[in-house]
Every structure is written in structure tokens, then in C-alpha cells.
Amino acid sequence: MHFRAGIKKMKPWERKVIRVINLFIYHLAKHWLLLVNLAVALYVFPAIGAPLLMWNHYERPARAIYFFYSFACHQLPERSFFIGPHLTYSLDEIRNFIGEQADSVIQRRRFIGNEEVGYKMAMCQRDIAIYLTILMAGIAFTFVRKRLEPLSFRSFLVLCIPIAVDGITQLMGLRESTPPGRVFSGALFGIALVWLTYPRLEMAFEEIRKAAATNLGRTLIRQDENDTFSTTSR
To answer: Is 149 in contact with 199 (CB distance < 8 Å)?
Structure first.
């Protein structure tokens, strides 16, 4: 009797609000991987598309993209992929293109290319490799999400060694990294990051899905019992 009295106090609009919230949580937890993959795609593809926009004379949106990514990446041309006659250029080749301006890091960052040499992507080679790999690994995870065990933190740190060594030695001026090295270390880091986090996210969202489904079932039961209680009371 007390339980039914409690049910009667819940107004119809309150039940609807609770049901909508639980439905939103359930579908968010169910489709989290799709949303993450879409977010990564929306982040990486404009960086790849910027030089294509320049080639097709859409200069304003292209420059807006370069400006946006300048806050997240150094955009140095000698460490970026180009869409043009050649995929990559060395620092000496960049110096031949822009002369003494190549001695300034700021001026090199500002150089996006031209019709003679092509146009650089809005992120460096390593970042392109990282985010493209995260996207591809995220898509691949769709097929193994119920079976893949998460990577241990120790193994993750081991897989991060190549990107750390390649990046630190380059930063300290001990050596100039190569495009294959940047791509390999970036891709390995992207795989390691997905392997570390996505299985754990899947397990967490699975619990959220179950809780939301249970709450949805309770809401429907309460609604049915409330309707029955209202009918018998008349």
C-alpha cells in the first residue's frame, strides 16, 4: 500500500522526464564509440583537407583551418606532409623555397606552400599519423569491443618509448627525425592509446547501459502500476 501511494505521487510529466533522461543515457552509452570516432574524424580530416582547399582556390576557409590548428601543432613545413609534387621536403629544400626566412621558426610555420611546391597539411606528420591511427583503430575496435582485453599501463609505457625517444632527441637537437620515424612512432602511440583506453571505456559504458536499461524498466513498471492503480480507484 505504501509503495502504491509513493507511485501515485509521481506526476506523469515527471515519469516522462525520467524516461527521456534514461533513454539519452542509454543511447549515449550504447553509441559512445561511434561518437568518439566521429569526433576524431572531424578533427583530423580538416587538417588533411586544408591543402586541397588551397589547390581549389578556397583560400579563406583553408587559412582559417591552418590558423585553428596552429594552436595545437607547430606546423613546421619540413615536418609536414604536402599535397603537391612531393609528399615531404627537407629543411634545406624549404630554405631554397623561402630563402633567409627559413632561419626563423615563426616564418617557417607561416609558410603553407604554393602552387610550385604544393601545400602542407595543417598538422605535422606525427600528429596526422597519431589521429589517423586513432580513427582506424577505433573503427577496428568496433569488431572486437566485446573480446579485446585492455592494454596494461606498463605495456602502454613501453609502446610510448619510440615516440618519446624520437621526439626528445629531435627537440634537443641531437638528431633530425625522419618522416618514416615520425609516422611509425605516432601510429604506434595511437594504437597504444586506443588499446589502453577504449576497452576500459567499453566496460564502463556497459555498466552505464545496464543501469539505464534497469531504470527504464522500473519506469515502465511504475507507469503500468500507476495506471492500474488509477483505474481500480475509480
So the answer is: yes
- HSE value, Cβ hemisphere, 13 Å, CA-based, for 9: 6
Give yes or no for a contact between 96 and 103, defined as CB atoms under 8 angstroms apart. Answer: no
Cα–Cα distance list, 125 to 61, 182, 217, 233 (Å):
21, 6, 49, 72
Residue 78 and residue 94 in contact, taking contact as beta carbons nearer than 8 Å: yes
Ordered per-residue pLDDT tens for the chain, 234 residues: 444 444 456 677 777 887 888 888 888 899 999 999 999 999 999 999 999 999 999 999 999 999 999 999 999 999 999 999 999 999 999 999 999 899 999 999 999 999 999 999 999 999 999 999 999 999 999 999 989 999 999 999 999 999 999 989 988 877 888 999 999 999 999 999 999 999 999 999 999 998 888 877 765 444 444 443 343 444
Residue 59 CA, chain-centre distance (Å), reads 26
Range(s) of the domain holding residue 220: 2-233
Q: How far is CA 210 from CA 25, 64, 148, 203, 214, in A?
A: 10, 43, 20, 11, 6
Measured distance CA(124)–CA(76) in Å, rounded:
7
For residue 18, what is its C-alpha cell? Answer: 525520467
How deeply is 48 buried, as exposed, middle or buried, from its count of CB atoms within 10 A (0-12, 13-18, 19+)?
middle
Looking at the structure of the chain, the number of domains it has is 1
**SS3 readout for 48-92:** HHHHHHHHCCCHHHHHHHHHHHCCCCCCCHHHEEEECCCCCCCHH
Single-letter amino acid code for the residue at 179 = P
